[in-house]
Design goal:
Helix content of chain B: 25-40%
Number of strands of chain B: 4
Strand content of chain A: under 5%
Number of helices of chain A: 8
Structural class of chain A: mainly alpha
Radius of gyration of chain A: 17 Å
Largest sheet of chain A: none
Distance between the termini of chain B: 80 Å
Number of strands of chain A: 0
Largest sheet of chain B: 2 strands, antiparallel
Strand content of chain B: 5-15%
Radius of gyration of chain B: 25 Å
Oligomer: heterodimer
Chain lengths: 191, 182
């Protein structure tokens, strides 16, 4: 039980997928202008990542095995693309407004490297099924957390008196860097 | 090699079947009537009907929430078409919904503060200007939809009726009264 809790804390804070592993920067910069969209993107990514981690564990463990390990990346990409399509259908059916807010970024979850990165890290760390699920879930919760925090900061930045040369993306990147630095502070939390 | 092929093919087949099934299961039901009504509306997206565009108005008509006489750009002819489509009686325009004389927006440049709000509201990009620069209207592009009036914080936009002159006079569209044969 402690072990599972450790995985969660570790993925959300210590090895945060965006701030420490620097994966999934495209949606992090792209969908963080509005808080509402950031929350939606986080939720959609959480759904995809948790399903994706589970499915990719089953595939790499039962279907591929050590003989076909070279197919890992290829088959994960295929499976994740399928799951994203599925998520898109579900979101369109259940929440048309969220579907409109997410727009192009929903299909782009496919190319979010965090979504491919976490299953690959799972294989590398030789996690079992539950650990893989938790690793995926924790990673995406960490992603959502950072998205929401960053969207909040960016909404405030809109009204801030930023020097002309730093306006827009420049100050956003600087902010992201400072956030990343502050997440490094968690590194002593779990060994 | 053959095993690898089989593995990838089976993944692809499984995903294809699952996605195909969920495409049917999670199909978004569109109302075919909405599309038909939307096709009759003039697609100016002007919002004079009180809805944010033609499609929302069509949806409201289809669900019976809005009367069919709320679309000034469509004119009386539009109401007739909607009445035919829905099998309803023709209703004339209500107060304030009748087609107005053709007019264009005019920005009073001494009061304009250059806030760009009207530029964002304009559906046809007929307003030029930049932040803290005086805006102006490209009169030939303006459709007179009045959407820029509301967002202006200093109320410097007004509608000016274009008087009919030789330079802008056009033949009227032919209106042929139809009689139902007895």
């Amino acid at each position: 039980m402690t072990e599972y809790l450790l995985i969660l804390v570790s993925t959300v804070f210590v090895n945060n997928i965006v701030m420490v592993k620097i994966l999934g920067l495209c949606p992090f910069m792209g969908v963080s202008k509005k808080l509402e969209a950031a929350v939606g993107m986080g939720a959609a990514t959480t759904f995809v990542l948790t399903l994706g981690s589970g499915a990719s564990y089953l595939i790499s463990h039962y279907l591929l095995g050590p003989d076909l390990a070279y197919l890992t990346t290829l088959s994960f990409i295929v499976v994740i693309a399928g799951i994203v399509q599925f998520t898109e259908m579900v979101v369109q059916k259940t929440s048309p407004s969220l579907y409109q807010v997410l727009g192009i970024y929903l299909p782009l979850i496919t190319t979010n490297c965090a979504v491919l990165g976490i299953p690959l890290l799972n294989v590398q760390a030789k996690h079992d099924f539950i650990e893989s699920l938790l690793f995926g879930f924790g990673g995406s919760i960490g992603f959502t957390l950072v998205m929401v925090l960053f969207a909040g900061i960016r909404e405030r930045l809109e009204g801030a008196d930023v020097p002309g040369i730093f306006k827009g993306s420049a100050i956003a990147f600087i902010t992201a860097g400072l956030m990343s630095l502050s997440f490094m502070g968690f590194s002593g939390l779990v060994k | 090699m053959i095993t690898a092929l089989w593995v990838m093919v089976s993944i692809a087949l499984f995903l294809g079947a699952a996605l195909g099934y969920s495409a049917i299961k999670f199909k978004v039901q569109g109302n075919p009537l909405v599309d038909k009504i939307d096709a009759v509306l003039p697609q100016t997206q002007c919002g004079q009907c009180g809805f944010p565009g033609c499609k929302p108005y069509a949806t409201a008509i289809a669900s019976g929430e809005a009367p069919i006489n709320q679309c000034p750009p469509g004119g009386e002819e539009g109401i007739h078409k909607l009445a035919d489509l829905l099998g309803k009686e023709f209703i004339p325009f209500g107060d304030g919904a009748a087609p107005k004389a053709k007019s264009v927006a005019f920005i009073d440049e001494s009061t304009c503060i250059g806030c760009t709000l009207c530029i964002q509201a304009c559906p046809v990009d007929a307003i030029v200007g930049a932040a803290k620069q005086i805006h102006t209207i490209i009169a030939p592009q303006c459709t007179g939809c009045e959407l820029c009036l509301a967002p202006c914080p200093v109320d410097c936009i007004r509608m000016e009726v274009i008087p009919e002159e030789i330079s802008n006079w056009k033949w009227r569209y032919p209106v042929i009264p139809l009689k139902v044969a007895a």
